[in-house]
Amino acid sequence: MFFLRYIFIEIEQMFNHISLIKKKIDFMSDNESRNISLKKKIAFAFGEIGDNTAMQTFTFLIFTFYFAIVGVPILLIGGGFILWSLWNGINDPLIGYLSDRTKTKWGRRIPWMAAATIPLAITMILLFTPPVDLNSPTINFLYFILILILFDTTYTAFNLNYNAVFSEMYVTVKARSSVGKVRISFVMVALIFAFLIPTLIIENILGVIPDTDPPISDPNTLGQYQLTGIIAAIIILVTYFVLLKWGVKEPKHMSKDAETAMSFTITLKNTFKNKSFQWFLIPALGTWIVINILPTLAPLFMTHALDIEDPIIIGILLALEFIVAAISTPLWEKIRISKGARMAGLIGIAVWIFPIIIFAFSVSIEMAFIVQIFNGIGLGGGLYFYDQCIAEIIDEDEITHGTRRSGIYYAIFNFFIRISMIINFFLIMIVFSTTDWYNYTPNPGVNTILGLQILMGVYPAIVLIISWIGMYYYPIKGEKLAENRRKLTELHEKKLSALK
User: Fold this and answer.
1) For residue 94, what are the contacts with CB-CB under 8 A and spacing of at least 6?
2) Among 119, 214, 291, 335, which residue has the fewest nearby CB atoms (within 10 Å)?
3) 98-103: long-range contacts at Cβ-Cβ below 8 A with a sequence spacing of 24 or more?
4) CB 479 within 8 Å of CB 17
């Protein structure tokens, strides 16, 4: 009731301002953003297929693969992800900073995206080709760390520049909302690739032949994981080619901002001093903690807590939430246009809290499917608000400093997404270690089941409550949003005039 009460108060306070603000926003436009064709918007959205296929395949399979198939102990896996986070602390801000300062005839972002495409595809194959034949936990652990670093470096080089160029190509509220809807529709396609294709290929996702006592390892599982990596690599190559060939064009007046980029130290200092960004990071980190925990633990949770042995059912149940999230996009777009990204986030997070607890304690497959629909609606708001909010924050920063620094903001945001994964794996490491699941065993005890339920339900709900509070204090709303739009339009007109 606390959340709903404040949501209604906010709606009431904003109601009298909606018409005036909407007129102001609609009046302000950027010619380049407005005139981009539907064909180019669709081609741009193709990047979401490759981008999400890479990340969600990684999130869905990497933990289960190295824990259950390769046999790396949970404490070593947790240690590997902690080392990975240290690398993220260097890699992500550095790539964002260098991207903002890149000067080429193709602009700042495109060279990074093109250079990362083939290495990322190769890395997707290498994810599932550890030296298991050597039967050495140490070597497999070292390979695990190496592959985490390779994946993060190549994925970040593409992803942060792809997102940065989105906020630069599409400047108006209407353009961002319309393209955001297309992008999330393509995310749905990517999730089918990421969640359903592996379950169609991998017969025994935990590597154990069902209904055998004692459990017998399936010798075909390793090759099936590797085939999944190859298919993911092909998807990445094809969709990124479409994006780079027909979907992306950097505005020249923003590419010129590379000439006025700040030093690395000043860049980081100004970014973290941004009050809007500080408040944004709380719900952004929280929602990504929740987004990442489901696919990470899905194979183990659904097999042992829900007694689902068919990997296809696991894939469908997992994909259902994300598909419903994509279908709900028009609802969140409508809320975003009329009431702002902040309100979309507040409502989405509030709607998400209760179903996620119920899902973790589902008593049947049918119940789990029904609850996933409601989870998907909340997830839709969680996915939609952050993309729109960070573009607003970058707009505000450009107004303040005169230089558009999309790269560094998306880099730090990507770093916090990785931090969300580290927090998850740290808690997984603690829960698994305290429930006698240091090494994977096919038949866990009741304490392990309870641990899985807490990780999948209670923990995410607490995180979402904290996220809602952070979203409530996000300051870019109402008149401030309209004023930022006006100042941004004036600034872009000056930059365009300087090119003539």
Assistant:
1) 264, 411
2) 214
3) 98/407, 99/160, 99/161, 99/164, 99/407, 99/411, 100/257, 100/258, 100/261, 100/267, 100/405, 100/406, 100/407, 100/408, 101/258, 101/261, 102/258, 103/258, 103/259
4) yes
Tokens of 479: 């008149």
Residue pair 44/242 in contact (Cβ under 8 Å)? The answer is: no
439 DSSP 8-state letter: S
Return the structure tokens found at 400. Answer: 């303040």
Find how far residue 193's CA is from the centre of its chain: 16
Q: Are 353 and 3 in contact (CB under 8 A)?
A: yes
CATH code reported for the domain at 2-499: 1.20.1250.20
pTM for this predicted structure: 0.77
- Pair 81, 421: CB distance under 8 Å: yes
pLDDT per residue over 133-155, tens digit each? Answer: 878 888 999 999 999 999 999 99
- Paired tokens of 80: 């590997």
CB under 8 Å to 166, separation ≥6 — which residues?
44, 176, 179, 183, 387, 391
Task: Give how far the C-alpha of residue 303 lies from the chain's centroid of Cα atoms, to the nearest Å.
Answer: 25
Phi, psi of 216 (to 5 degrees): -115, 130
pLDDT digits (tens, 9 = 90+) for 409-451: 988 988 888 888 889 988 888 888 887 787 787 777 778 899 9
Of 314, 296, 307, 308, which Cα lies nearest the Cα of 421?
296
